[in-house]
Design a protein that fits this description.
Chain A: InterPro entries: CcO_II, CcO_II-like_C, Copper_CuA, Cupredoxin, Cyt_c-like_dom, Cyt_c-like_dom_sf, Cyt_c_oxidase_su2, Cyt_c_oxidase_su2_TM_dom. Chain A: It is found in: Cell membrane; Membrane. Chain A: Subunits I and II form the functional core of the enzyme complex. Electrons originating in cytochrome c are transferred via heme a and Cu(A) to the binuclear center formed by heme a3 and Cu(B). The complex is a heterotrimer of chains A (374), B (200) and C (534). With 374 residues, chain A is an alpha+beta fold. Chain A folds into three domains: 88 residues, Helix Hairpins (Orthogonal Bundle), CATH 1.10.287; 139 residues, Immunoglobulin-like; 108 residues, Cytochrome c-like domain (Cytochrome Bc1 Complex, Chain D, domain 2). Helix content of chain A is 43%, strand content 16%. In chain A, a hairpin with a 4-residue loop joins strand 2 and strand 3. Chain B folds into two domains: 47 residues; 140 residues, Ctag/Cox11 (Pfam 04442), CATH 2.60.370.10. In chain B, 22% of the residues lie in helices and 34% in strands. Chain B has one helix and eleven strands. Chain B has a five-stranded mixed sheet, with no helix packed on it. Chain C is an all-alpha fold. Chain C has two domains: 191 residues, Cytochrome c oxidase-like, subunit I domain (Cytochrome C Oxidase, Chain A, Up-down Bundle), CATH 1.20.210; 257 residues, Cytochrome C Oxidase, Chain A. In chain C, helix 4 runs parallel beside helix 6. Classes of the chains: A alpha+beta (374), B alpha+beta (200), C mainly alpha (534). Chains in contact: A-B, A-C, B-C. At the B-C interface, helix 1 of B face helix 6, helix 7 and helix 8 of C.
Amino acid sequence: MRVHAQRAGALLGGLMFPAWSMADWTLNMTPGVTGTSNEIFSLHMTILWICVVIGVVVFGVMFWSIFAHRKSQGAKPANFHENTLVEILWTIIPFVILVVMAIPATATLVDMYDTSESEVDIKITGYQWKWQYEYINEDFGYFSNLATPRDQIENRQAKGENYLLEVDNHLVIPVGKKIRFLVTANDVIHSWWVPDFGVKKDAIPGFINETWTRVDKPGIYRGQCTELCGKDHGFMPVVVEAVPEEEYNTWVAEKKEAAERERQLTQKDWTMAELMERGEKAYQTACAACHQADGSGAPPAFPALKGSPIATQDMAAHIDIVVNGKSGTAMQAFGNQLSEVDLAAVITYERNAWGNNTGEMVTPKEIFDYKNQQ
Amino acid sequence: MSNQQANKAGASRSTNRVVGWCLAGVVGMFAFGFAMVPLYDVFCEITGINGKTGGRYESTEVAEADMSRTVKVQFLASNGPGMTWKFRPVVRSVEVHPGEPTTVNFYAENPTAEPMVGQAVPSLAPSEGTLYFHKTECFCFNQQPLEAGESTEMPLIFIVDKDLPAHITKLTLSYTLYDQGKQPAVTQTSRKDTTTNDNG
Amino acid sequence: MAVTGVFMSAVADTHAQDHHHGPAKGISRWLLTTNHKDIGTMYLIFSFAMFLLGGSMAMVIRAELFQPGLQIVQPEFFNQMTTMHGLIMVFGAVMPAFVGLANWMLPLMIGAPDMALPRMNNWSFWLLPCAFLILVSTLFMEGGGPNFGWTFYAPLSTTYGPPSTTFFIFAVHIMGISSIMGAINVIATILNLRAPGMTLMKMPLFVWTWLITAFLLIAVMPVLAGVVTMMLMDINFGTSFFDASGGGDPVLFQHVFWFFGHPEVYIMILPAFGAVSHIIPAFSRKPLFGYASMVYAVGAIALLSFVVWAHHMFTVGIPIVGQLFFMYATMLIAVPTGVKVFNWVATMFRGSLTFEAPMLFAVAFVILFTIGGFSGLMLAIAPADFQYHDTYFVVAHFHYVLVPGAIFGIFASAYFWLPKWTGHMYDETLAKTHFWLSFVGMNLAFFPMHFLGLAGMPRRIPDYALQFADFNMVSSVGAFMFGATQLLFLFIVVKCIRGGKEAAAKPWDGAEGLEWTVPSPAPYHTFSTPPEVK
């Protein structure tokens, strides 16, 4: 009984005071960390309470009837079957209630459509099945892939705390500044959502959508893709890290340096062992979702790479399909998504893993030349 | 005819009438479904709702620039799926005065070993600004053929209308470049060639 | 063939001027029948079979979602299950069930001998098994069946769809033709074949709601046909309706689809409104409160349904003026819907109530559909919808209006009219058991989905983060319970067909209407001479 009482209390408490709800039995939306999310939360609670009151009244009358007007208790049926005044009243009163609801709703929507000056502009592109973030004014960008290991998804390993809500590269933004997001997609419609920000916008291929946020509190905020986009729609989370301004500036400077270092890495001489190590990581992130960690794929949509002609025979064809993709299939052109180093590493890995053992390797320099002189 | 037979004949005549009207409704609604396509385009052109900036702008008057304010116009470039060209704006953004024609360029390069044809599709944010963004010259009006290894700088000449609402201070113009195959198409893509946005 | 045997022996051919000698025998009877009762029966059997099929797919979905991790199916197949579950339930279970009820009951309620176009009626039915054979066979084609959600947005369904998509489109066309022909038949029947004296404002509510539903079908099924044709052209004939690279727009797809889609959901509920408007007065032994208001309310709902479609698209990037318009229009629908709920409650109030199975389902309908209406009102609030859209909150909403809405409405109707169809009373104890198990199962399955959506769980995902695990498990248990209980319903119906307490012409003492003046089971031909209506 105590457990039931506890649960009932949590239910009521959770609805009224969100912070009380037990972690796994969360009942309600949270207010979030932006002005927008807090406005939406208040609106949500207002409408919810109005609905609860109306429900209690209407169901109350009905339950009373069920109790008091039963034939088995001797109730005799009355004869009334219309009353124009009552009909008018219960048309007008709900209409007035709706108008009352519409006012704060309109105000919140106007606030959300604010196009005033922003301080940071970030282009977000949805891909099957990852996000690309490009800092428009800083000239760098990167992909953000699901980081949860397939072993956890396939129940071979215990699931981590942020199962399915963790990525390799967070989107980093400064706290307290207006961030403008330009949202689009590369292939199908995706949708970018961070519940704590109250921000959701569809990513439509060929079109650009605009939304914005201003985060008040530093922290890591997690969201997901919210438009069915194919098989891994549930596996492309959004993770945003909001940091104080100086930290953000430092991070931006580091990212720009790292991009420069990656360009230099292209020039260095790589050994087979280095390529294989790098390649395995890149493969797990960018390829394993479709071609599987063991290279067996899921034919016919996702061919096997283990023992396949592509990975064991003509090198040029292998490079071509990784860099340029194959139109009419799900194989994307990774030439624009992975660095030359990762491309070289992943192709080298595919040609030598799972018993493919060609002994062949391809260097980042060769990939760079290939992309420029095809 | 007996009364009942006459009634039945009458009923079947009016049944035929009802069926006729219903079928007309069905055909009409099917046609309406297809009519929604050009209707949507017209609606979007008039309201600018979907961010498509329309065809070549021919102004009927020479407008003076509004020197009292500037608007930042940002440029984004994306490749469509499978498109391998290098494609980027030469400058990331410009500050313009409403009413003043501005020229910017976009760099495109075909790094492959085959000739290819690209088509750029524009999109503007915020969509409210679409009606106030006029392109007098744009590489997106035509398909762009490039030989193997060839690169080019493609011009965009635009004017931000003086009547752009005061609360819009930043416009983002995004182009997505699509692969149209090896040969330029015989006909243009389905787009009206010119628009005159008479937003006085 | 116990079912046909029972129907044949139940036929009482008493009209001298008819030259029929009872129904034909064997399989040709069913293939060639133009009798509205036979066709109604076939629609109902077909719809229940589809309900079980679509339900099995739901069981696969809930089994995979029972725990985090991928245990049972791969994501590609999971997407096919969610898509087919939606398509089969909408087009194979709910719509044909209502057409079946219409076929059986409309002629009886208006005193007509049959539907206006009996041969077209036969075609309307037989198109459906053909369409669904094609649709279900796509699951076995190379690349699998449709996997883009029952809403099949472009370009996921066009450029990125599996090879079977063309067959999916073909099946949708056939279903659409069937629905359109059925709607034409309903309109012609109601407008032309009413017994003399039955003016429009004397028609029973079920007839009114079906008349209005039929107009909705005529208006929007052709638009669905248009949008899938555009898809077909984009996929196979190089057009670019929905492809930005050719000057098209994926959002156009959504506008055209939802122009069909929103009236479609009213198509799926209005007949239930009508049926419940018969059942509640019958078991309250009191006339329906506010007949005229009820009729106007249905008309208002139908009209409004045409101007609210973009509330399914609040996150697509519509400018604020558009968002506000669609928000206000959507909120407005709550007014006539509320009027209907108040009228049902007022019908019960100070009645003399008994709670046989039809009434249990009808009362549950009013309460639970209203809860679905509340979540719908919340979804209508555009700024809040940014947090609800494409989450389990939406899934909770539409399952509340469709399961205890449409489906309970269908169960209520079935129990209400089974005595008329079969001549036997169904087993009341088993029926009440079916009700209570369905009620508990359904609420366990779908109420937690409100919480999941508010906590941030998106739709159409085969696997989820750990904080969603507990409610998902509860939901799956409820779903399994609900699913298993429907087998009990099958048993109850078969048992009732085969025997049971003999049913009077009017087994429910509070029921009113012409349908209760003919014997139970209803003779093969009824109202060959139209009755007088005062």
